[in-house]
Design brief:
Layout (H helix, E strand, L loop, with lengths): L7 H7 L46 H23 L4 H14 L1 H16 L10
Helix pairs in contact: 1-4, 2-3, 2-4
The structure holds zinc ion (ZN).
Zinc ion binds next to loops.
């Protein structure tokens, strides 16, 4: 199953360390204040992986965030247009509302996806 430890999906959904899937990735897992949402632990508490792989590493997460934003916008447009039969300007407002409300989660998800692209799961770090 793709939701078990060892899949990148598990690390992304649970905000866990990409290498061991045990340690927390974000400092404030459930805090959605804009100043705190992207704050990371410096190292994994379990396997000691350094989360900042290189200086400014997370600028690359912008590409992931962009892709997510486009995907979400297209999805919201299709749903509002095909299922709810909204006008074009109503669909546009729906897209903006969803993107603003989903902004914080988009920031978090894009960062954890970005580090998961570069760091592989290693089962020797799993807790016994
Ligand atoms: Zn770890």
């Amino acid at each position: 199953m793709c939701l078990t430890k060892g899949s990148k999906f598990y690390s992304i959904i649970n905000f866990k360390c990409p290498q061991c899937h045990e340690g927390d990735f974000f400092l404030h897992k459930k805090n959605w204040k804009l100043s705190k949402i992207t704050a990371l632990h410096s190292n994994c508490s379990n396997c000691n992986l350094k989360y900042m792989l290189e200086p400014s590493f997370y600028y690359g997460a912008m590409y992931v965030a962009y892709a997510l934003t486009v995907g979400i916008a297209i999805t919201v447009f299709l749903i509002s247009n095909l299922i709810f039969a909204l006008e074009l300007w109503e669909s546009f407002i729906a897209i903006i509302v969803v993107l603003i409300l989903g902004g914080p989660i988009n920031l978090k998800i894009s960062r954890i996806i970005w580090i998961n692209i570069f760091v592989k799961f290693d089962k020797k770090h799993l807790k016994k």
